[in-house]
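We treat protein structure as text, and this decision shapes the records that our systems exchange. Because each token names a local backbone shape, the row as a whole describes the fold. For reference, a complete record is included directly beneath this paragraph.
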Amino acid sequence: MQRRLAFSEALDVVDQMARGLEAAHARGIVHRDLKPSNTLIVRDDQGSLVKLLDFGLSKGAVSDGVDQTASGVVIGTARYLSPEQARSPHVDGRSDVYALGCIAYELLLGRHPFPEARTPIAAIAAHLTAPVPPPRTIWPQIPVALDLLLFSMLAKDPSYRPSLAQVRSVIADLRAPAEPRRQRTATEPGQIPAHYVRVESVALLMLALLVGVLIGAFMI
């Protein structure tokens, strides 16, 4: 995933990634190294198909720059590493939700949650201790459901992250406009107006996430 995707395509990519992870988790498989370079987008006349690569990482992989894994210390890629995975290789599917949150943050907001972390050590430290910038501080017109979803996916405490089913539910509502007859005006950076979300169908989910997100996103 090299080029900047349109908002609708970015949502579709995240949705398909969540679907793939759901299928893997149902079989007891945790990816543990989810990142853009392990994600392939195949395009044809029928649209785009997202494929997740390199499941079941058992050893550290070395690559350039901040994506380098600290071999012998951490299993995974520092830039997309969950806090719990930075402490131990024994993680569950919620660690993949965190990594997906990092990727979704980049796709939809145009920047990594911790862009100043330019080395593996700095990236791991940020995941462990640094507060995540709320998406609305980067995109003020972001739909509230998406703002809370991205923020909660990056909660430090995995128990406060949404399930993949909840992630897909919010995305489904974001892709279903509440008022199709109303003229919309594009806004940056997502090129979609804030009222594009069916607030009534995600209100209960967002309320549940909000209870934990302000605590979980900052817990070590």
